Amino acid sequence: MEAWMAELEDAAIGGIQKHVPLARHTTWKIGGPADVLLTPSGKPEMIRTMAILNRRGVPWTIIGKGSNMLVSDKGIRGVVIKAGEALDYAEFDGTLVRAGAAYSIIKLTVMAGKQGLTGLEFAGGIPGTVGGAVYMNAGAHGSDMSHIFNSAEIVLETGELAVWGPEEMAFRYRHSRLQDPGSRGVVLEATLQLAHGDRKEIAAALATHKERRRRTQPLQQPSCGSVFRNPPGHHAAKLIEESGLKGFSIGGAQVSPMHANFIVNTGQATAEDVLTLIAHIRSTVKNRTGIELMPEVLVVGER
């Protein structure tokens, strides 16, 4: 590790920390240590980081706010990359918005509404970053990032800088090309195409979504958001609830009594608790209905 660590330090990448517990960097509050946590201070530093890691053959994982992600109890080997403050910005130009990868998607939604721009209302409750939302094609309320995506500036794992449009991104349900082997990269900035709308209507839609979340989701407990994708023609939460699993626990992981597609950390949950509960939910629903539930949460780290 020492040679590539020294090279990263010499390249003035930014923040470099060793053996960092990742539970403090995930919304589930679960996860073992990262060998190294890097926080590149800006775009040039991110590009240098990727080039060095590629040349040295060092494995890497990108993390935003740590939502929609389960980090294993043993943690992540190699380098975990987290975008720094220089990528925490948003700029509006008419109906176009350019936002850095580290910018909160919830904050961007609120800002867009205040500008009288519609299209992002679906994201008002997604607890992630712009970069993570593009990577996952995050969505809710019948829409997702692919509906408003214009382009993204990406540093590929080789260190090469690229700009991808919708075709290159190859979005599908909770998926982008960035998740495919051979196409890995890190979003630096995304440009989104919004539309002019009525500020009062946008605010009303956001308020309605917020109130619904407050009533139906376990917002006061650590979770990753929805765990399973909705199968075609079905709702995962309904299938899980009808299988009698609402409130079911394994260790410190529990199927939320409020929303069956949420698994909450009741205090001392491990990644293995969550994985065992996910497997139990899948087998129970499959045996009862014949439907195979597919997780949308990313499982990362050493097993």
Task: Show the helix and strand layout.
Elements: H1 2-10, E1 14-21, E2 33-40, H2 43-56, E3 60-63, E4 69-71, E5 76-82, E6 90-93, E7 96-100, H3 105-114, E8 117-118, H4 130-136, E9 139-140, E10 143-144, E11 149-156, E12 161-164, H5 166-169, E13 185-193, E14 195-196, H6 199-216, H7 236-242, E15 249-250, E16 253-255, E17 263-265, H8 271-289, E18 298-300
Tell me about this structure.
This protein is α+β, with helices and mostly antiparallel strands and 303 residues long. It is built from 8 helices and 18 strands. The protein is globular. The longest helix has 19 residues, at 271-289. The protein has helices at 2-10, 43-56, 105-114, 130-136, 166-169, 199-216, 236-242, 271-289; strands spanning 14-21, 33-40, 60-63, 69-71, 76-82, 90-93, 96-100, 117-118, 139-140, 143-144, 149-156, 161-164, 185-193, 195-196, 249-250, 253-255, 263-265, 298-300. The protein has a 5-stranded antiparallel β-sheet.
Key terms:
26% strand, four-stranded mixed beta sheet, 8 helices, globular, alpha+beta, five-stranded antiparallel beta sheet, 303 residues, single chain
> What order do the SSEs take from the amino end to the carboxyl end, as H and E?
HEEHEEEEEHEHEEEEHEEHHEEEHE
Structural class: alpha+beta
- Biggest pleated sheet: 5 strands, antiparallel
Which spans have pLDDT < 50 for at least 5 consecutive residues?
none
Find the count of extended strands (DSSP E, 2+ residues). 18
- Percentage of β-strand residues: 25-35%
